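Async update (no meeting this week)

Hi team, since we skipped the sync, here's where things stand on the single-chain job. The sequence we agreed to prioritize is pasted below, unchanged from the tracker. I ran it this morning and attached the output directly underneath so nobody has to dig for it. Comments welcome in thread, and please keep replies under the output.
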Amino acid sequence: MFDNDSKTRIATVDVSNITTGISIYNNFKGEFKINAKQGDLLVFTRLGYHPDTLKVDNNTPQAIFMERLAIQLKEVTIHDSLLTPEQRLALTKQDYTKIYGSLAYNDFLSTPSSGGAGLSIDAIWNSLSRSGRNAGHLRELIEQDYEQNVIDYRFNRTFVSRVTGLKDQKLTEFMFRYRPGFYTTKNSSDYEFVAMIRANLRRYLRNKRVYSLPPLEPQKNTSK
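Output:
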């Protein structure tokens, strides 16, 4: 017994000889053997497939190909196109190679290719020059941006909405009020992270009036 589209073997097919009333199942290899003589009608049925009928002409082994009730789609692999914070940071470092230096060391000691300790030219440049001080400031900004990307990547609207059930403005208010820090986001397990969000949700639901800003009222014209 074979699938007509994929040509793979089909198991657990009911094979019935409606002439004699005998019914069996084929084995896991898709093979079957049933008592039948010339002129008997065999009916093949399986969940998810159209029934098929075969009239026995002789004792020659027969290959049965069954049609699926639904169209079988080809397997599709979906890859996430969203870059992780680590990937984005790596690309940023490639764009700003000068401020990180070829070795990206934080001190003056480096390890030359010949072995031993030497002076890092990048470290001297970063510490003494005005451009180096500016580069250090830019590195700090890039690191801060990376930390915020880590939080945004994990504490995203889709995930938080699924955990809390909040939507639209309430979701925005909750995420603004209970945005986690970088350390918590980076080091919490999935269980700990979800537990933290649910604990904050209980606080939000108890005190949501406090966190909602009142609507602005138009100022009255007091000029005469």
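Quick observations from my side:
The longest helix spans residues 130-154.
Residues 102-121 have pLDDT under 50 and may be disordered.
Reply here if anything looks off.
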